[in-house]
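Q: What does the assembly look like in three dimensions?
Context provided by user:
Components: two
Sequences:
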Amino acid sequence: MNNYILIIIILSYMAVLFFIAFIAEKNAKSKWVNNPYIYSLSLAVYCSAWTYYGSIGMAASSGVDFLPIYLGPVIAIPLWIILMRKIMRISKQHKVSSIADFISLRYANNRSLGALITIMCITATVPYISLQLKAVAESFAIMANETHSIGSSIFDDSTFYIALILAIFATFFGTQATDASEKHKGIVTTVAFESLLKLTFFLIIGVYVTYYLFDGTQDIYDKVSQTTDFDLLVKLPGLGGGMDWGFMILLSFTAIFLLPRQFQVSVLENSREKHLKKAIWFFPLYLLLFNIFVIFIAWAGKLSLTENANPEYFALLLPLNSDHTFLALLVFLGGLSAVISMVVVSTLALSKMISNNLIIPYGFLDKFIKAKPEVNAIYIKNIRRISIFSVIIIAYFFYNNFSIELSLYSIGLISFVIVAQLAPAFFIGLFWNRGSSLAAILGIILGFLISAYTLILPFTIEAFTGNSAFTEHGLFGISALRPYALFGIDFLSPPAHAFFWSLMANTMCYLIISLAFKGHYRERNYAEMFVDSKNYSFLQDSAFVWKGEAYVSDIKNVLIKFLGEDRTQRALNLFFRKYNIPSDTQMADARLINFSEKLLTGSIGGASAKILIAGVVKEQEISLPEVLKILEESKETISNNKALQEKSKELTDLTGKLKDANEELIVKDKQKDEFLDTVAHELKTPITGIRAASELLMDENDEMPTEVRQTFLKNIVSDSDRLSRLINNILDFEKLSTGREQLNLKKRNIQNTLKQAIGNTQHIAAKKEITIVNNNGFHYELPYDEDRILQVLTNLLSNAIKFCEPKKGVITLDYKLGNDGIEIFVKDNGKGIPQEDINYIFDKFYQSKNQNTIKPEGSGLGLAISKQIIEKHQGSIWVEKGTKVGTTFGFKLPFN
Amino acid sequence: MKKILIVDDEPNIVMTLEYAFKKKNFEVFIARDGGEAMQILENNIPDVVLLDIMMPNVDGFQTLDHIKNSALLKDTKVVFLSAKNKVSDIEKGLKLGADKYLTKPFSIKKIVSEILGLLN
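A: Here is the predicted structure of the complete assembly.
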């Protein structure tokens, strides 16, 4: 492919990335940018050119050994999620802006520790970036079909320009805000986009190689199994190899936390904690997909390409070999994506560390304190911009001068081993409050020296001199000091071996020194905040113990230098309001000092913030026990407060309940009054009739015509009947509703009860010539109080008879068996119940207002009593709604 | 001939009152609730209305209100006859403009003499 066309394609692709980043920055709050998938995809910055090209190279030479690097994160992901929550919360609370910040904060913003971590990260990352550049250069050469050579002039080297564009991109989108803990939505979105592209293109080439060039996986396997070195390729690890795998998995596990770019995307760029839930399955899935075709592409390359083809670029060479230039271009762009995202995120992360942990705390503070806020903001940004450029340019020169001879894969592992040295200070520090900064510093240095001796040194010597004497015979010819087999451990691969020894020494050193020397009180203070982060996050700024003399005005002046007048005033107002402190307070307390340090941390890093604030306050030394005592007390206060709050809530609840109960009593009282009123009224009515008729009969006996006298006498009898019926019903109702009545539950045959109820009402029905039909002749036995159910049925039947027209009326009895009980229905074809009455008919003394007929006989208690009886049986009673003709009453009796 | 309208939903009670007032030469109208009473009042102006309070559909208070708002019925006396006999009930009835408030159960003789007294 033509050199210039390729360059144009690369530039267009970069332009697309700029555009995406630009759009994402503009819409930083939209849900597209803050999507959990964007977050999960951005984690795939893990898959750099190392994955894209290096794995295939590894697979072609030593089989499945490339896998542990991806299995580590996959296996570790549940644990990763748990730890991540804690790390994220601490980082957000303290405005952490890099892994160096995070670890040094744990050790009380120790300046030297932060600087050391930064140096470690640079050492690990610069060669790694240079390898990315190497991958670009070599893949470019393959695409452009030119023999690759560097050295004539860097200005002829397209890689240099690509590095330059990357630097501009990272600078532009990485330094928008002075506060380094701010999110970089533009960069993250492009990284996610690139992650999607690189996976898609890699899968395309995988499918192409496996199913187009070959006849599926089986075909490749069959063919490759006939080659001579096949056994080596599929050799599964033995005991030594197994341990090797174990260490490699552990190594990649630490890398997923500690690689600066990984910390950047997973912790610092996380906008919502719940995005972790998506990442927990999405990211492992991504890694698995990425690795499906690696082995087949490697085998296919071995089968189809010549001996001297570089296995790392099989994915490019295979399509080119078959003249599928477009496919090769896709692969090239995928690789470029992997490179760009890795380089941009890594340099972004490094630039913040370099400025906040290496440069600003060593010498720039005095300058800042004297300058104006606007100047400071520009200064800080410039330091970061220069850092980004420097890192990329240094990486370019490293690549230019050293990395020709080095394979992608081995340099990647060296990076991992170096970064892994942060593990004890990081992981143990999160859970062990005794870990001290001195121990962390010495541990890291020791670990680094050992890994330098066992990995970096022999590796570089061999790569550049080709002399393996050092490796074979050890330092001064002492075989116990052989770098790849220290003290006789000769069954591990060099990276695993280096990882094992360096990390063991590092960890032991960390533990022993932490225990041997009493830590500084300030350190212990931060340690407590990290280890017990759940509890201390409640305490917020009060978790910081401080004694001494400080003035709000002094602190404010420092803040203004970095945040400007407006932001400082706003932040302070917020602080005063939050803690309910008068805004004209002059003396600053521990909370304000901690709060101010946090504010500054974002801009200039924790170490500098501490130094600056310490410069304007007079701190009084506190002893360690005192610090612990104060912390314990404030924790107690918090838990006491919580207990008090709970108690007070309980009391409020109780008061509410009492109020409810009281209201219920009032309602009950009112109901009782109403009930008595109604009872009195209902009783008086027949008495009035009896009294009036009797009086007339008594006074006018002689003059009264016989038929009138007969009517009055008949009325007296019916009123007396009504009276006694009423009294019986009231007593019955009272008995049921107060619960004094015990049901006489016995297994009975419902069919017999139904027949008996029909028998009881037959004579009234016959009078109106109404037919009662029993629809269900089946027998069924269940326990119930037969007299009471008979009472209900009789009541329902008499109601039905009452509301049916003479001669035309038909009443149907029926029952069905449900899941948990028997349902009995009484259906009539009378005039039906008006809709507005249906909800009230089971209320006592409720009689329909729309009775146009003469007042129906009855006490107004029949249905209320029926309801009581059925509910006492744990059943229910209802009127079917929406029936077109007549009324259907139903009730349900449970089976037991 | 004096005219009386008896409004009550209890037929047995109405029957006794009807008998007693007819004996005293009243022309007796009967309504089973307020609605029926209003219908009757459209064509007749009784001298007195004997009014139950608790009745279906239109109750005694509503009926009283109707009578008080009718110019034609300005001379018609209204007597409540109710089983509600609490002081508050009686006060309420009189406040609304009833001429008398009698309670159930009642003595026929007393009712008749009260009404006659009211009309003279």
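Follow-up: The radius of gyration of chain A is 44 Å.
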